[in-house]
Amino acid sequence: MSWEPEIEELKRRVALAHGLGGTEKVARQKAAGRLTVRERIDGLVDGGSFHETGAISGAATYNDNGKLVDFRPANCVFGKARLDDRPVVVVGDDFTVRGGANDAGIRGKQLAAEQLAFEYRLPLVRLIEGTGGGGSVKTLEQDGATYIPGNPAWDWVVANMGQVPVISLALGPVAGLGAARAVTSHYSVMVKDLSQMFVAGPPVVAGVGEDLDKEGLGGSKIHTRNGAIDDEVESEEAAFAKAKQFLSYLPQSVHELAPRGPLTDDPNRRDDWLIGAVPRDRRKVYKMRPIIESVVDQGSFMELGRYNGRSVITGLARLDGWPVAIMAGDPFVYGGAWTADASQKITRFVDLAETFHLPVVHLVDCPGFLIGSASEQAATIRHGARALAAVYQARTPWCSILIRKVFGVAGAGNANAARYHYRYAWPSGDWGSLPVEGGLEAAYKSDLAAAEDPEALKADILARLEAVRSPFRTAERFVAEEIIDPRDTRPLLCEWANLAAPLRTAGPVGFPMRP
Predict the structure, then answer these.
(1) Closest Cα partner for 38 from 50, 53, 22?
(2) CATH number, position 46
(3) Cα angle 207-209-212, degrees, rounded to a multiple of 5
(4) Got the DSSP string for 149-173?
(5) Residue 501: which of 335, 324, 264, 237 has the closest Cα?
(6) What stretch of H or E contains 190?
(7) Does a structural domain hold residue 348?
(8) What would the pLDDT profile of 332-372 be if each residue is shown by its tens digit?
(9) What's the pTM?
(10) What digits encode the pLDDT tens for the residues 73-96?
């Protein structure tokens, strides 16, 4: 006698699980313009590669004869799959079953997913919608008791930040624990007009006197500007593509090194327009992103956090195929000055590079910390000091290109001054403790006050300072180690990337990355 009856029963239960929360709930999900969790997994992973674990877990009802009469699957789907032929762990919330709220199934599956990713050193992709395992007051009546909060699997969530790449895609309303899971990742995405995120949703917030809809409380425009979420896309399919792109720059875990990508661009390419990229007039701005695109492998730059901390640009790219982390000042925003938001962005970005052993390229244009009362009220110096600590604690290979301004305490964050200065300067370089234009009147205050013609004296002093302001004067003292033709930047960076590649050392870093 075979086990065929049990196999048929297994198939029946799997089919019930694939029905999710039922026809009505699935229709409601589709009417809202959102994919179901299983459609999301199919759209994300390589075709046919998803192997589910625990498909038939959930809440079952039996008749007096012990026969299954009803089944509600757990509101979490998890398993192993492949993304661009790389093994990964995927875990997704099923909003059609109790809005993704907490039950034993979601707790157990989330724990299993986090543990599997950690112990087998596999990247983790979370598809988050609803409370993501958070609470619902219905639980009180269903369980007959309440509980002391203890976030499920949170020790593993924290541990994975220092172990494997973690990607969170917020693909609908995300609240409470789901929101915490979304931001506790190395890369997070929201879908414009489809995703919202909040500590507590509008019905709860109404209790404190705020009448807001979901978009007004926590839409993607809010959270990609405040730094909680890294990226904003137009569709769920675009979110899946971004997840794959981000993962392509990273190793499977901190115990490996990111592999070299395809060699698609000439490492010796020299773009002639770079020689005029920076205006001679220091008061004029220029676009940094085209410079980044010019010096890295063509088409390889993936910007992270574009809408937050906008005076600093961060992203991932390749140099002669090698994955690198790119950081650059944006003179179009506060002249590239480090704000409180930009400093927090730098800290997290440098920690990402350090965690996954990515060499850092810093294209420097920084006039210092942003000044003024608003900057002081934002605790810019504290956040800036944390960013400097991240730069000085990082041990990954580092190369700086001094494009224009390098001033003050923030400018000193162009690199760790205690390490070998692998850096180059463009002839447009302008550096010091303070910009001449801003520091002249303070430094010569008494002289100007005593002068018969303060404006004439100021002009004379400015002319004298301009004479010694040239980067060539600095180079004479071997402080600006090497001034280069801007057109040589890519060849020199590719040379550096090839020298840096064998210096990378796999393994956990001294401090795990935090959100």
Answers:
(1) 50
(2) 3.90.226.10
(3) 95
(4) ---TTHHHHHHHTTTS-EEEEEEEE
(5) 324
(6) strand 187-191
(7) yes
(8) 999 999 999 999 999 999 999 999 999 999 999 999 999 99
(9) 0.91
(10) 989 999 999 999 999 999 999 998
